[in-house]
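so ive been stuck on this for like two days lol. basically i have the seq below and the ligand is flavin-adenine dinucleotide, smiles is in there too. i just want the complex predicted, nothing fancy, no docking runs or whatever. if the output looks off dont worry ill sanity check it later, just need somthing to start from for the group meeting slides
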Amino acid sequence: MPRPLRIVIVGAGVSGSGVAAGLVRAGAAGGFSAEVELVDPRPSFGAGLTYAAGGDPRHRVNVPSVRMASVTGRTAAEGGEEDFHRWCLERGVLEADPAGWADGLHYPARSVFGRYLDERLRALFAAAGPVRVTHRRDRAVAARRLESAQGTGFVVELAGGRVLEADALVLCTGNPRPELPGVLAGLAGHRRVVADPRAPGALDPIGRTDRVLIVGTGLTMADAVSTLIGRGHRGPLTALSRHGLVPRSRPVGHAESWTDFAADPPAADQSVRVRDLLRRVRAAVADAGRQGRPWTDVLESLRLQNAALWAALSIDERRRFQRHLRPWWDAHRFQAAPQVARLVASTQADGRLTLLAGRLVAASADDHPSGGGDGAGALWVVHRPRGGETLVGRTYDALVNCTGAGHGASFRRNPVLTTLAGQGLIRPDPLGMGVEVDGRHRALDAGGRPVSTLFVVGPATRGSLGEVVGASEIVPHALAVAEALAAS
Ligand SMILES: Cc1cc2nc3c(=O)[nH]c(=O)nc-3n(C[C@H](O)[C@H](O)[C@H](O)COP(=O)(O)OP(=O)(O)OC[C@H]3O[C@@H](n4cnc5c(N)ncnc54)[C@H](O)[C@@H]3O)c2cc1C
């Protein structure tokens, strides 16, 4: 009888817990046994950063309860679909949260989705079977290669001193903390500069009447506006990004895939061109409109086909997409729950929120600690409006950094990635969005060769695999890695 496979998964958010859930199910199906160590200092399974307990209840999932993904790996036939909605009904979540209703659907708080994931996953992991999952509530601080008689594995060191040996290592480190944009680096540590708005109580130092600059206009900005307005903020809010685009509202109907963008691929030696793709998308939207269908059907096609489309783009075309189209894609793809979108629109309409399109140029603070003050004084921020030449300088009392996850810095800031990269076992993808992987989620080493027992799942793979950000996109990736491990 072969000994069980030892698998260490770093990160127990949707990605890491999704892999563990897939392994448990593979074990239950027979022929596979494993000891899985799920490493994460957070107390719960599945919630990770996004759906953690204690988050502001105004921060809602952007997909209605009936359509949120099931991370346990249950298929639709097994009742995997609508599982979250059923759980909400059983727990009385919908009645307890009337503000969650919009257009006949319910958008629960993200922390509620986290509770659901934790409960379902805890039950799955507790069941006896050939795959045992152990939660190591600790931070992984280093990983290195282990050469042994059994083959090539890994050693993972935890902050508490424990050392784990693994035949296979799966990196699911998720969304790194946001980085302050370079122009704002000099304001780091200022009491009224919120570098990471997702940290608990991050917005507390902001006064009710403060003039607040929010840098970034995506979903994190919408979260910040929801929290501030919900707390009775009366001062002016200004949100700035390159294009000033805000997330679209989640549409009422269920989007249905409309066009096959992956059909008619270019010759094998040619890349799809982003410009041509954009032209086809525009034509498809016009075509859908003529037939009385919403633009979101076209977007749904792109969402479902994004992996194939991304794979068909050369690195230069991917860069072009990042530079010119990413803000448009993000605003349309990462939609806000309707009540959140309405709040952003109404605060804009009544003048409490001003949206600016432009680039940050400079920032300073009179009494920043580096200048000897208490770090609570006014901030001076200069931006160049989009398409303009003149510079605009304004005074603010507080600044909130809503530029999103700092993927670019993850190799520097996450010690597991740092140590693996130091040994040449992983490398950043060419766009600097995360860890480079092949089509089977195996990390590529410094020489571009896949490391057969080192997998990466989740947002860190999006430079290589396309959009792996929403829970519904992550779960199939997690299950694919679990299947590959079980087959090995
Ligand atoms: C603000 C925000 C809102 C979002 N809202 C939605 C939504 O409504 N719907 C949707 O589908 N998607 C949403 N997303 C997308 C979200 O990224 C995914 O749904 C999913 O939660 C990502 O899961 P993950 O496990 O990859 O990452 P994370 O949730 O970031 O989890 C990663 C985990 O890894 C752990 N970790 C990292 N490094 C180490 C280490 N060295 N040692 C131990 N543990 C480590 C962290 O503690 C963390 O728990 C949102 C994302 C953000 C940032």
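The longest strand covers residues 353-365. Confidence is low (pLDDT under 50) at residues 370-374.
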